[in-house]
Write a structure and sequence with these properties.
Chain lengths: 208, 90, 198
């Protein structure tokens, strides 16, 4: 999904509010929100992809103007409503006001994901290009590398493809790679001596 | 006055799935009703729903949140007055 | 204190009300076991944290063979110290050198090596870091207090799949006489993410 969560390279977001140390949870509600999400995810047997995608589908304005654990709360409530654990009007009545939820899933359920990719199609040192594509559902291919060429630096073993497992019960497993991109190729801004490594699934890549 | 209310007449207005409040007082009466239902009626929404049916039927065409407010007023009027020192203050 | 002598807590914020609403409804559905929230919270607050990663780093500084194993197979070497599990089941450790500086980010969400660093800090999970570290790492590192000479190569690692990363910082000069236990105290969380040098 070309959503607000896909932030790599976005400008205008301001300074990083860094602190060297901070409490794990700033307020009690954050801890509760986190655990409620874990409870909902467990109750509906959500995959990591379905969980992440429920956050990705948040209203962009809400995503950018709310804190991390408010994202988890919103996503937990969304999954709970979508899977029939609670209703939206119950949430609103109990909260005494609006209860913003994430937007709907835009991709259909994956009925036939195709076969597992058993053997890695690429090896260390190979030049690869990231597919120029715009999936409507969950993916772990960030926009800032799509269509860009890089070099495979590491093979990391086979894993379930998030684009598939976030959208139904089907599964497809593929090799994953760490691919190195030169910053100057990504941003055309003259940066030297900077590389960005992104971990990618086999089907995200073509030979360059 | 004709016909019976459909369920959708009782539902609050929404835009894009979100509750639609056009002014702060509307979200206030929503929250107040929720609090009264929670604290004075143990979470049972039926008494408020009945008042809302009555209020909408009494003045069809009245804006939704005004009917909601009338229903809330009527609901609170059915509650016994508070006992104790606070009640005796002017 | 109000005039009737009772202490009234500050009114709940809208997000607190929403959290309470979801908690109440899920509890009524029987989905929240007694004490579960408190138990899980306590685990996140006290059982994992960057001290684990500091021990890994200190061992790598003190023991060159461990360092070799750590860089060859991060998962197995980290497991020698008893650390591993969720969000760390496939670890890759990247070493800083005088010529190379590594830094970790998750542009898409907040992926982070829990078993060695605990839960990530807010700044790592929020939009500005995620947007900027892949685009202008030298400038952002300098802003965060990590000044790198211009000839140092910068490698940014975006944790977009299953691998979780740990930066092995360079051992500070003048620490040759310290024991492994002493070295642990020198290692900061920021240095293991890569936004600081020691």
């Amino acid at each position: 999904m070309d959503g607000i969560h896909d932030l790599g390279g976005m400008q205008g977001l301001g300074p990083v509010a860094h602190s060297a140390a901070e409490p794990v949870f700033h307020e009690r509600w954050e801890a509760v929100a986190r655990v409620l999400m874990e409870i909902v995810a467990g109750a509906i047997d959500a995959t990591g992809g379905e969980f992440r995608h429920s956050i990705e589908r948040m209203d962009p304005g809400h995503y950018l103007t709310s804190s991390y654990y408010e994202h988890w709360l919103t996503a937990a409530a969304t999954l709970a409503v979508e899977h029939g654990l609670v209703t939206r009007s119950e949430l609103e009545a109990r909260a005494g006001g609006r209860f913003p939820l994430s937007g709907p899933v835009l991709a259909p359920a994956v009925a036939d994901p195709g076969p597992d990719i058993g053997e890695p199609r690429f090896g260390v040192g190979d030049r690869v290009r990231v597919r120029e594509w715009h999936p409507a559902g969950h993916t772990r291919c960030p926009r800032y590398i799509r269509g860009k060429a890089g070099e495979v630096v590491r093979l990391d073993g086979s894993y379930s493809v998030p684009d598939v497992e976030a959208h139904g019960t089907a599964r497809r497993h593929e090799p994953t790679y760490s691919v190195r991109f030169d910053a100057v190729d990504l941003w055309q801004d003259g940066q030297r001596g900077v590389s960005v490594h992104v971990d990618l699934w086999d089907s995200y890549l073509e030979r360059a | 006055m004709s016909g019976t209310l459909s369920l959708s007449d009782l539902d609050p207005p929404r835009r894009n799935g979100e509750l639609a409040f056009d002014a702060p007082w509307q979200s206030t009466v929503f929250a107040l009703a929720a609090a009264v239902v929670d604290h004075a009626f143990g979470g049972d929404r039926e008494p408020f729903r009945q008042q809302l049916v009555t209020a909408i039927a009494a003045e069809p065409g009245r804006p939704y949140w005004e009917s909601w407010t009338a229903a809330l007023d009527a609901l609170v009027a059915t509650l016994p007055p508070p006992a104790g020192p606070a009640a005796s203050r002017p | 204190m109000s005039e009737d002598g009772h202490h009234h807590p500050a009114p709940a914020s809208p997000v607190e009300q929403r959290v309470a609403a979801l908690e109440a409804l899920l509890t009524e559905r029987g989905l929240v076991p007694q004490g579960f929230i408190a138990d899980v919270t306590r685990r996140y607050e006290s059982e994992i944290g960057p001290l684990n990663g500091a021990k890994v780093v200190a061992r790598a500084w003190a023991d060159p063979q461990f360092r070799e194993r750590l860089l060859a197979d991060g998962t197995a070497a980290i497991a020698e110290l008893g650390f591993g599990g969720a969000e760390g089941s496939h670890m890759v450790v990247v070493a800083n050198t005088p010529a190379v500086h590594n830094v970790i980010v998750c542009t898409l969400c907040s992926c982070y090596p829990w078993p060695v660093l605990g839960l990530p800090p807010s700044w790592y999970k929020d939009a500005p870091y995620r947007a900027r570290m892949v685009r202008e790492p030298r400038a952002l590192l300098a802003e965060m207090g990590c000044d790198l000479p211009g000839d140092v190569e910068v490698r940014v690692w975006d944790s977009s799949a299953e691998v979780r990363y740990l930066v092995l910082p360079e051992r500070p000069p003048g620490t040759e006489g310290l024991t492994e236990a002493d070295l642990v105290g020198l290692v900061t969380r920021d240095s293991m993410i890569g936004v600081a040098r020691l």
